[in-house]
Amino acid sequence: MKHFLDWSAYRNAGMGDAYADIPKQGGDFAKAVAVCINSRQCEAQGKQVMCPSFRVSGNENLSTGGRVRLLKAALNSELAEQALADPLLAEAMALCVSCKGCKRECEANVDMPLIKTEFLAQRASREGLSLRSRLFGHTPRWLHRAPWLKTLVRWRNRHPLLARLSARIFGLSAERPLPEPAARPFAAPAALPRTDPERDEQLPEVVLLVDTFTRHFEPGIAEAAIDVLRAGGYRVLVAEPEAGGAEPTRPLCCGRTYLAQGMVAEARAEAQRLVRALLPHVQAGRTIVGLEASCVLGLRDDAQALGLGEDVATVGRHTLLFEEFLARESTAKRLDLPLQALRGTETLVHGHCHQKAVGAMKAMRRVLKLIPEHDFSLIESSCCGMAGTFGIEREHAGLASAMAEQALMPALRENPEARVIANGFSCRQQMRGHGDARPKHLAELLREALAQRH
Q1: CATH assignment of 8-127, among 1.10.10.10, 3.30.300.30, 1.10.8.60, 1.10.1060.10
Q2: Which residues of 129-141 are buried (b: 16+ CB within 10 A; e: fewer)?
Q3: Which of 4, 40, 36, 57 is nearest to 111 (CA)?
Q4: Helix/strand/coil (H/E/C) assignment for every residue in 357-419
Q5: Do residues 271 and 305 lie in contact, with contact meaning Cβ atoms separated by under 8 Å?
Q6: Quick one: pLDDT at residue 259?
Q7: pLDDT at position 46, please?
Q8: Which fold has domain 197-330?
Q9: What are 315-333's pLDDT values in tens digits?
Q10: Which segments cross the bilayer (predicted)?
Q11: For residue 418, what pLDDT is reported?
């Protein structure tokens, strides 16, 4: 059985354990599946992230353990590659929203999202890719090369006939708006202004990694992050492609959109391009700061399975989320961020699943506490339901809405005057698609607190 990802980290998993129940087919991939100990923690009720589709449906096949049981049955078959095409298994994997909750909350740390990527790659090798998968996977490229498509997206959102046509051609939900690209994507300034050049030369440097979605859809977030980091006493460099690389004008991307469609070779090329651009900064002692949890986690976690060697591990170790960086610097007494109290009511905070998966909500709390007299609370919820493109796919939009309605949307409706912070692009889109226009990124909130000084 050919593997598309590097599963060698599981080479010794379960070896010598008579109860490991490692499937006959699949090699190290099968061992990654078999780390599940069938504790059924993924089917427990309570304040956990993992298995949003199980939490909504109650269908045991849609829990991490349920998917493991179906995968084991397929990998124990003499014709494992054909067995992986079983419709019941295909449905269970399709309804995994890759929240990464299992990687943190499961006692065995089953990485079902990465297993799903391998599953999708196996399917693509057998059946090819759908038009929708190609469209979604290549998002970073068409956003860069075909800016005229932003007009088409706006028309589609405003004309029901075009929405229905997109449902028929691409399988997009006609009832859900698509995110609309900004009129102008983020562009790094040629030189960030310096108020005191001699002092600025002595400031510690950080490198801002502007992901595809921030760059093309919400460039104001990157601009806010730069303002906040500079106000905190840092010189900010913006990560750019290698000057001599294959595509020196196309912005950097982590490859997340490709991984989500099982396009592993394309994801590997994107990650390698990103690592080559970031490695010199890391070697120079700079920290990489990212704004989007799924992109940072993609680099720190998923990219490690792409077979790119030690360089990707090195870059991953020096890459932090915006809130993680600020929290670290605050704890070390290196952050000098002049914030003042915000006018108005409390702040509600919704954590992206991948923020929760890396424990970054503790960092969010620490940073939010830097704002004087700031009343905030974290919404106790699982996945918002958008999960990349899941919430706009015709066959999944209903389930995605049910996920949002479990806790997130009721909490927002109960607090109509509150500010809303959601660092995940998908989360903000889900809220807006359900009629709530309030969500902002933490960087925007902090810049507002800075603005109170003027």
Answers
A1: 1.10.1060.10
A2: beebbebbbbbbb
A3: 36
A4: HCCCHHHHHHHHCCCCCCCEEECCCCCCCCCCCHHHECCCHHHHHHHHHHCHHHHHHHCCCCE
A5: no
A6: 97
A7: 80
A8: Rossmann fold (3.40.50)
A9: 999 999 999 999 999 999 9
A10: none
A11: 97
Choices 3.40.50, 3.10.20, 3.30.420, 2.40.50: CATH for 340-451: 3.40.50
pTM score above 0.90: yes
Distance CA 442, CA 448 (A): 10
Question: Measuring CA to CA, how many Å separate 290 from each of 257, 335, 390?
Answer: 16, 17, 23
Residue ranges, the chain, pLDDT below 70? 18-19, 190-201, 451-454
> What does the pLDDT look like over 53-64, one tens digit per residue?
999 999 999 999
Q: What is the pLDDT of residue 454?
A: 40
| Domain range summary for the chain, segments of one domain joined by + | 8-127, 131-170, 197-330, 340-451
In order, the DSSP letters of 248-268 are TTSPP--SHHHHTTT-HHHHH
Asked if 197-330 and 340-451 have one fold, the answer is yes
